Amino acid sequence: MKCNLKVMLSVAAVMAAAAGFAYLTFEEARVGIVASLPVLAALLCPISMLVMMKMMHSGSKESQCAAKPESATPPAAEPVQLAKEST
Q: Helix, strand, or coil here: 19?
């Protein structure tokens, strides 16, 4: 399977924003945050694949719900033919 570039870039942007926020917020942990960036870069493709699988799974449920008609009408009844009695 190939990674979708759009999802991969969005996951990378979220990871970079989280790392940047943590870097600016926690001054004591800056060394650990910088040291964990290569690990996060290596996990970028597997994490984006999990996100894509989640998106595909949730999309299938919505499409099934949208395909159902809201007001189901019963099928039309076949006309009843009366048998003629022979005397």
A: helix
